[in-house]
Structure formats: C-alpha cells, structure tokens
Amino acid sequence: MKKDGKIVQADVGFIEDAIGYISNAVAAEEHCLTAYSIANSKGNKEEAEIFMNLAKEIRRRRSVILDKIVIETDYPLYCISKHLSRMVMGEEELGNRYSEEGDSNLAEECFKNRGIWESTIIILNKRLKGGKQ
Fold first, then answer.
1. What is the residue range of 69's domain?
2. pTM for this one?
C-alpha cells in the first residue's frame, strides 16, 4: 500500500494469496477435526491425537496469516474476515463446477460474488496490513 492509503497491485496480489491460504486452511482444519472425531469414536486415540495436533497447527498458522491482513484483532472483525475468506474460495469452487457443467449464468454469478466477498474483506479492514507499505 502506498503512503496515501491507495492499494497498489502488489497489495491486491498479497491479499488474494492470503485469502486463498486462509480459506484452504479453514477447510483443512475442518477435515482434520472430522477425522479426529471418526478416529476417536473408533477408539483409535493415537490417530485421533495426530489429527487434533494437525488441526491445532493449521489453526495456528492460519491465525498468523490472518493477522497479516486484519487490522484489528477484535473478535467480530477477525472472525468475519476468516469466514468471508472461506466464502471467497467456496464461490470460486462453485463457479468452476457450474462452468464445467455448462451453466455459465450460475458460474458468472459465483465469480462475481467471489470478488464481492474479497472486496468486502478489504473494505471491512479499511486498509491492508500486509503487502508493500
């Protein structure tokens, strides 16, 4: 970001990369917690512990990256930014699926929404913390 507060292209690339990372980390953490529950219900405590530790490490690393783009770490803004990041990836994946199925209208809507959610993260945080300053 330039000193006058305007976003430069490098910042947009950074925020896109960070949002992609965060959304994938949220999904990976969800899968690890599901795997933990399954292993735990089968009495496989060792395997369950592996998945829980992996989920904790993914969450820790996700938080480090989220801290780079969220200005205030007050709970609502931080958590909203995390969930919006997941929505960005969800819209992209749905758009790709609709496109493959030949439904260009729904695909276009998803890709448009992806941009809206990504812009919303930037707007909510008023300025980018990461990227070039």
1. 9-124
2. 0.68
